[in-house]
Write a structure and sequence with these properties.
The protein has three domains: 108 residues, Orthogonal Bundle (Butyryl-Coa Dehydrogenase, subunit A, domain 1); 109 residues, Butyryl-CoA Dehydrogenase, subunit A, domain 2; 147 residues, Butyryl-CoA Dehydrogenase, subunit A, domain 3 (Up-down Bundle), CATH 1.20.140.10. The two termini are 29 Å apart. By secondary structure, it is an alpha+beta fold. The chain has a four-stranded antiparallel β-sheet with strand order 2-3-7-6, with helices on one face. The chain has ten helices and nine strands. Helix 6 packs antiparallel against helix 9. The structure holds coenzyme a persulfide. Coenzyme a persulfide binds next to helix 6 and helix 10. Coenzyme a persulfide (COS) binds next to helix 6 and helix 10.
């Protein structure tokens, strides 16, 4: 039987996340977008309220949420501000490799102290010449006794250079292609890690994205996830798990744009009547609302598959791709409904439109999602 009724716990956490977005995030979102900074006080408050490290099991200091509930929270926080929700949620991506492939000892050692405090983690996969083509990464990890020595440069890393914990993908043997890629847990205070360029972004500006440089970073062999050569698989399994949550954030952005457009269309009077009385506006709102609802259904379905332990690659890619496209088109339409005012920074919709674009790009472009979907269809 299919039920869309949320449990009492889900309703409670949705209420908490919604009120956090309305009272704490929305009032400062434009300021931090302008400053291009993470609001640290928000990170601290979110941590204290249990809105971070949401899918880490309680025994390791996280919230132990299932993926559907995580999606509910992600939607609400992104409704407030995509950049801030990204700052709060990036730990979900960075810690997923440890949740997927970590031994109980690794989880105990790294997750527990990490989750005990408000701290940030970073997922280091992308490189200047290895974006969509993960298999071509060139960061190396050379075995030296009981250690690996990591050298390389990662780019576009959320929380890069400011993270307390990194999950790093490096090759132990470039000639093996993707079979050489290995995943490492790297504490942020390990000597040799430094921040490169901090990126200046179009949107999503309250999240910190920078290059991370690894120079002779020595990591004990106990920090390898699974074993040598398993890194590509771990990266793919991580993205399977997190792409639906990108979809959830996209639903949040789109829902916010829809609500702003509805409100404005009722207030804005032209030709002697509110513009919402024009069928042209009504049809746009109807299409926008339908897209928001259908995107959420796909996101929740993908998260439900994850919670059941069922294959999720195809539906997860659909959820991310579709919801991101919805966020883009709904925010563009919201700006259109606001007219000239929509283009100005005094109103929230121009930021929503700038923010939406990254959803079609990160954690796999929407073209990569189509590749994943098509390969699953043709397999
Ligand atoms: N789960 C488990 N294993 C997977 C998998 C998944 N979701 N997807 C692929 N694999 C395995 C395959 O089974 C295959 O294993 P075998 O060699 O043992 O058969 C191996 O990984 C290689 O798979 P594939 O041939 O599909 O690899 P490709 O190099 O063609 O890459 C894409 C596949 C393009 C889908 C992948 O590189 C990708 O997702 N790229 C986008 C990366 C991304 O999202 N970057 C954003 C950075 S994070 S912000």
């Amino acid at each position: 039987m299919i039920s869309f009724k949320l449990t009492e716990e889900q309703e409670q956490i949705r209420k908490l996340a919604r009120s956090f977005a309305e009272k704490e995030i929305i009032p400062i979102a434009a300021e931090y977008d302008e400053k291009e900074e993470i609001p640290w006080h928000i990170v601290e408050k979110a941590h204290a309220l249990g809105l971070m490290n949401r899918t880490v099991p309680v025994e390791y200091g996280g919230q132990g949420l299932d993926h559907v509930t995580d999606a509910i929270v992600a939607e609400e926080l992104a409704y407030g501000c995509l950049g801030i929700s990204g700052a709060l949620g990036a730990n979900g991506l960075a810690l997923a490799p440890i949740l997927i492939a970590g031994t109980p000892e690794q989880k105990e050692k790294f997750l527990k102290p990490f989750c005990a405090k408000p701290q940030l983690a970073a997922f280091c996969l992308t490189e200047p010449n290895a974006g969509s083509d993960v298999a071509s990464i060139s960061t190396t990890a050379v075995r030296d006794g009981d250690y690996y020595v990591i050298n390389g440069r990662k780019c576009f890393i959320t929380n890069g250079g400011i993270a307390s914990l990194y999950t790093v993908f490096a090759t132990v043997d470039k000639s093996k292609g993707l079979k050489g890629i290995t995943a490492f847990i790297v504490p942020g205070d390990t000597p040799g890690i430094s921040m490169g360029r901090k990126e200046k972004k179009m949107g999503d500006r309250a999240s910190h994205v920078a290059e991370v440089i690894f120079e002779d970073v020595r990591v004990p062999k106990e920090n390898v996830l699974w074993s040598e050569g398993q890194g590509f698989k771990i990266a793919m399994m991580t993205l399977d798990r997190t792409r639906p949550i990108v979809g959830a954030a996209a639903v949040g952005v789109a829902r916010r744009a829809l609500e702003e457009a509805i409100k404005y269309s009722k207030q804005r009077v032209q030709f002697g009547k509110p513009i919402c009385e024009n069928q042209a506006i009504q049809f746009m709102l109807a299409d926008m609302a339908t897209k928001v609802e259908t995107a959420r259904l796909l996101v929740w379905y993908a998260c439900w598959l994850l919670d059941q332990g069922l294959p999720v690659s195809k539906i997860g890619a659909m959820a991310k791709m579709y919801a991101a496209d919805v966020a883009m088109s709904v925010t563009v339409d919201a700006v259109q409904i606001f007219g000239g005012y929509g283009y100005m920074r005094d109103y929230p919709v121009e930021k929503l439109m700038r923010d939406a674009k990254i959803l079609q790009i990160y954690e796999g472009t929407n073209q990569i999602q189509r590749i994943v979907i098509a390969r699953n269809l043709l397999a």
